[in-house]
Design a protein that fits this description.
Immunoglobulin-like, 70 strands, about 0% helix, five-stranded antiparallel β-sheet, mainly beta, about 775 residues
Length: about 775
């Protein structure tokens, strides 16, 4: 059964063969014996059994009040109850008082927690309910449903909040010692959710500063072989309602304990998940994981210790699987119960090794083979933390570096230092400078980095530093950092020159011919900076060293000054100049010619078709196109397409148009050309007519001589041609050509015979464009 703790949790027992331990600052240890329905109390420092106290059925968890005056025991078997033991010195060492009170609860209790004020206790049952117990009346009070069938409880040191770990983590506010209300929303023990990964809180412990630690089991369905199980410890900062960081344990933890100074967290590993590719299964755990809390959330590995509790064989039921875990107030030892083998193991926190194992003996009042389960040790806030083994390990720079180097000789001297076997970090040690062989070798005590400044002397140098345990300032160790300071490298920025068009990158890298210490200068060993430019037409990309000239750069020389500096010695620099000569593109506009009828058209589709840009066909992306002049408004240039158009009605003859193309990137680089368009006159055709009419009376012999005449392929009309009489043979004043309508009229009775009437039509828009035809008129005399 997985258990949880308010401060330090679980069981101690009557030991067989218990020798003295280092826990002299403690008083009593309480152990629940599930098989014999009792709690055994003994002196923590030796094997003296002080008392065996009968409790309810199948006791599991033991929790002590903050003042150590009472012990609370969860009796998981029917009838379900909580036993409250008077843990005062008088009651433990004598029979002078009634030392046990039984308080019934509604379902099997999984965990119990007590307010620091001692007025209320809280019980989590397997029905997922948290029940309040009034310790003034020793009666059950209100309850609240939180869900889950197993888990743990812990109360914050100020007694204001109750943390429930039962799948999710639920934070309950404690009001007037009897009323519970949910704060915010229950949350999973994870920093952020992952798809198909589910984390379940199994227990909880809270340090004296209010930091909450939650062991969790992880079930993943997106692993390499599908399902996978693991776990870790989540940390919630004081007063928090979300996880700040986690430590992965790569196994499934259960119970947890926090040392009195909050430095250590130890977790009992209940199960491990094995996946071979051929099969997979849960296997009982046999280890205890030790976590250095100061290293959580840092680059250091907080998981610094694994204690193997051993096994009696390879079978699953032969593994020494831990249940309860408790840390002595001075942090020197961790006690772990192993129910299946009636064993309690003591782990030395200095090296995380098991130093002793003990078994509970059989007595008349405890005839069954004992099953030590929960364990708790009397709190002692005044106990000084046991000094830990502190080890400052020498460091050496991996390579020579110059004075005033841009990188540290050693990034962090603490990186290989340890305290109690755990990583030494600023939260558990102080770091100070002791001495150095050169005034230019310095220690950044805040970050642990060793630097050189401009005063560092060339040659081998060393620095001595000291680390001291924060909790025990007299517990210190020193170490030495060795390094070699070299002279600055020779650096040479070589001038560059290139010739190019505007809008290009003529130099791919100005540093390509530069050197550092005789080798190639590049991004790995120098920095590149632009110092100045001659004008806005040139620039430097410091990221890749390329030099570019803008599209608007004028023809001629453009220059810039750049600087390269050694990365490891930022004051070791040299300047270089890059010059680019911008040359113009060859722009050539070529004359064009075409023809068009007077009806209009597009005699030239694109004047650029025969123009060139650097010897290739010019395009509107490379050049701009502008009309300079036109001999006739009807002849126009479309600058967007290059087309030359002739409007309908444009005068016949040769028309000219002048245009200019200029380089798009350099509008002063231009060329002009002429376009000659021959506008052809419209075809005009007067067609001969023949008619027979009477000479006896007035009549119209022909309605219109224009009826069969043509202009530009269409009918000739009085609106597009002018009509005139050329001659009438023989002359007859009674025969008339109507110039307005084109009709040939016999005005009155006249002489008979055959007459020839010649007429002319001329284009209205081009009066010289004319045609003549003859009308033959037969006046028969009828």
């Amino acid at each position: 059964m997985q258990q949880s703790f308010t401060a330090v949790l679980f069981l101690a027992a009557l030991f067989v063969g218990l020798g003295p331990t280092e826990a002299a600052a403690q008083t009593h240890t309480f152990v629940s014996d599930t098989a014999n329905n009792r709690v055994v109390v003994f002196n923590t420092g030796d094997s003296t059994a002080v008392k065996s106290i009968a409790v309810g059925t199948a006791p599991t968890q033991v929790v002590l009040s903050q003042d150590g005056a009472k012990a609370f025991v969860t009796n998981s078997g029917a009838p379900f109850s909580i036993s409250v033991i008077d843990a005062s010195e008088a009651c433990i060492t004598t029979n002078a008082c009634n030392d046990t009170i039984t308080i019934p609860v509604a379902a099997s209790p999984q965990s119990v927690a007590v307010r620091s004020q001692g007025d209320s206790a809280f019980v989590l049952t397997d029905a997922g309910v948290v029940q309040v117990i009034d310790l003034g009346t020793n009666m059950p009070g209100d309850s609240i449903f939180v869900g889950g069938t197993d888990g743990g409880l812990a109360v914050t040191p100020n007694g204001s909040f109750l943390y429930v770990a039962s799948g999710d983590v639920t934070v309950l506010q404690i009001s007037d010692t009897k009323t519970l209300s949910v704060v915010g929303t229950p949350f999973a023990p994870e920093v952020s959710p992952e798809l198909d990964v589910f984390n379940f809180a199994v227990s909880v412990a809270i340090a004296r500063d209010g930091t909450v630690y939650v062991p969790f089991n992880t079930y993943s369905y997106n692993g390499l072989f599908g399902f996978n199980a693991s776990g870790g410890i989540a940390r919630i900062k004081p007063g928090g309602t979300s996880v700040s960081d986690v430590v992965q344990l790569f196994s499934l933890p259960g119970s947890i304990a926090v040392s009195g100074d909050g430095r250590l967290v130890d977790a009992a590993i209940n199960y491990m998940w094995f996946q071979t590719g051929y099969g997979a299964a849960f296997f009982p755990g046999r280890t205890v994981a030790a976590v250095e809390t100061a290293a959580m959330g840092t680059a250091a590995n907080p998981l610094f210790g694994w204690t193997d509790l051993g096994a009696d064989g390879i079978l699953w039921n032969q593994q020494h699987t831990p249940s309860g875990v408790a840390i002595t107030p001075d942090g020197a030892s961790v006690y772990v119960t192993i129910p299946g083998f009636n064993t309690i193991a003591r782990i030395d926190t200095a090296d995380n090794l098991v130093k002793e194992t003990f078994q509970l003996g059989v007595t008349p009042d405890a005839p069954n083979t004992a099953r030590p389960n929960g364990i708790a040790i009397t709190p002692n806030p005044s106990a000084a933390p046991t000094p830990l083994t502190i080890d400052a390990v020498d460091d050496a720079s991996t390579s020579s570096l110059p004075a005033l180097a841009a990188r540290p000789a050693v990034a962090n001297v603490l990186a290989n230092d340890t305290l109690g076997g755990a990583p030494a970090v600023p939260a558990n040690v102080t770091l100070s400078f002791v001495s150095a062989t050169s005034a230019g070798v310095m220690l950044d005590a805040g970050k642990g980095a060793v630097w050189t400044n401009g005063d560092a002397q060339v040659g081998p140098q060393s620095l001595v530093y000291k680390i001291c345990e924060t909790a025990n300032p007299e517990n210190c160790d020193t170490a030495t950092v060795t390094l070699n300071v070299r002279a600055p490298y020779v650096i040479d920025a070589v001038d560059d020159h290139a010739t190019s068009f505007a809008g290009t990158t003529p130099l791919s890298n100005v540093a390509a011919n530069d050197t550092l210490n005789g080798g190639v200068a590049g991004p790995s060993n120098v920095t590149l900076t632009l110092l100045s430019v001659s004008d806005a037409g040139i620039g430097l990309n410091a990221a890749d060293g390329s030099v570019f000239v803008t599209a608007a750069a004028s023809v001629g020389d453009h220059s810039l000054v750049y600087q390269i500096c050694e990365i490891e010695s930022s004051s070791n620099c040299d300047n270089g100049t890059a010059t680019v000569t911008v040359i113009p593109h060859a722009v050539r506009a070529v004359n064009d010619s075409g023809t068009s009828p007077r009806t209009g058209g597009t005699p030239i589709a694109n004047v650029l078709a025969n123009d060139t840009f650097d010897g290739s066909p010019a395009t509107l992306g490379q050049v701009t196109l502008n009309l300079l002049s036109s001999s006739n408004p009807g002849v126009t240039l479309n600058a967007a397409t290059g087309a030359v158009s002739v409007a309908s009605g444009t005068a016949a003859g040769v028309q000219t148009l002048q245009y200019r193309i200029c380089e798009a990137a350099s509008q002063s680089n231009c060329s002009d050309a002429s376009v000659s368009i021959t506008v052809n006159a419209n075809v005009i055709l007067a067609v001969a007519d023949r008619a027979r009419a009477s000479n006896k009376t007035a009549n119209t012999a022909i309605a219109s001589v224009l009826a069969n005449d043509m202009l530009a392929g269409g009918p000739a009309t009085t609106s597009n041609v002018t009509l005139s009489l050329v001659s009438l043979t023989p002359a007859n004043r009674d025969i008339q050509l109507n110039l307005s309508t084109g009709a040939v009229d016999v005005l009155r009775r006249t002489s008979g015979g055959t007459f020839s009437l010649v007429y002319q039509i001329c284009e209205v828009g081009s009066p010289t464009n004319c045609s003549q035809a003859t009308v033959t008129l037969d006046l028969s005399g009828k």
